[in-house]
């Protein structure tokens, strides 16, 4: 179970607490007390159930994020499939026949939302006359048949987005609610929006890659970001590469060669000199903190307000990084899932911007963005401050995942996830295990035993890993202090004292632990109670554990309170901290339970 750190349930509370404890400056995006959003309970008490299987299932559209590839597979001799990548493998196991959209992976949130609309509804993409004129690109794009030509408020869809795709889905609903497409659209055309690791508040990573802070679209010519833009332009310049990578930018920006009807020369492609790079209508702006702020801190007509008839679930992934007690930086944990993003996690966990940039661009301390999930800061995944939060839930069991229960529309369900195996939709597996060569290696007994040894001793490995990193950080601080102070004797004593006290501290828990807020705890208790009442096997197990607990407490003596034994018995499995059983299709009967107990 999670403990220690309490999740803030209302925007007002979040603003007051974080400003005092962690923020160097007042975050202008957070509502002040006089302007705070009403946090009273929603007036609407109706609940909505999402259905992903069967004849009455909700039409579901999957929205990908940056640099996405749907599926890459090869058929080997003998008919065996070699799956290199399957972006939606986890969701497709739960959702029956979803529609997989394919908006341009590097376009702005606005352009991606417009493309998503026409992919669902059908027709030729129209980015809007004013928008196209403002950013100097073509007004019309590709033509689509449409997943659901009958899409309307009476026939809504469920949007599931990962990363940048989640913000795209939210912006599409904003365009629908403002009738941007001029077809009497409404926010009720979306029944639910489910987000995973969504950059609601932007990311500081673009600034590290080379985006000039405060400029919104100017890129440092000697940066990794400039190299990425050059690569994108070269791909679009050559038709063969464009078909292979499919960035979908030529229809709008004409980035192909002049011989093929485009506007680029080979030198402009290499140097990334184009309207796509200069005018700011691209992923760089909307991925940054400034671009995200424009979506929720601008004029009232530009803000996205949650629809009272739509369900909102926001999965915030945590637990992939740990905080150093020496420097306060966050570093990646020793988990298999985190290895591919270890470098990004290290960068995010210690990227420090200048005080001037913190005050005028971030409007908060850089350390606010340090805790991350390997690719995105935890703070970035928090919903915009002007949008209502229904409750915060920390899930450790699939039973508590809100996606399978009746939910109140019109507000966010923030779901804090440390292990994706506890979620229903996003219980993904590393794709490398599907490679035939890797599968054969994993079947070797020696490799199996080594893998089991690593899994059993992961806590010990992480203990020494944390100790080594903090030891090196301490020595680095020691050398810096000698260089700055010039008093080596005094400094050595201080360092030795800190080292000794550190070695005596056996608790190396550096991971931020969270608990559900009051509304989330009540909701989980209600779900647990319903499951107990609906299953005789669960009820009998619960009663049996209570009886064992009473016998144990009476044997120890009546002076000790019954509640004092709860933690001990939870550890031994007599009273589980969560539900006794995971929800299953076929539940045990009372006779099945009794027969299993007799065995």
TrEMBL record:
Listed GO MF terms: hydrolase activity
Record keyword Hydrolase present: yes
Keyword Ion transport in annotation: no
InterPro entries, per the entry: AB_hydrolase_fold, Lip-like_C
Residue span, Lipase-like C-terminal domain: 92-177
Gene Ontology cellular component terms for the protein in this record: extracellular region
Alphabetical keyword list: Hydrolase, Lipid metabolism, Secreted, Signal
Domain of life: Eukaryota
GO annotation (BP), single: lipid metabolic process
SUPFAM superfamilies named in the record: alpha/beta-Hydrolases
Places the protein is found: Secreted
Pfam family, one: Lip_C
Main location: secreted
The protein's name: Lipase-like C-terminal domain-containing protein
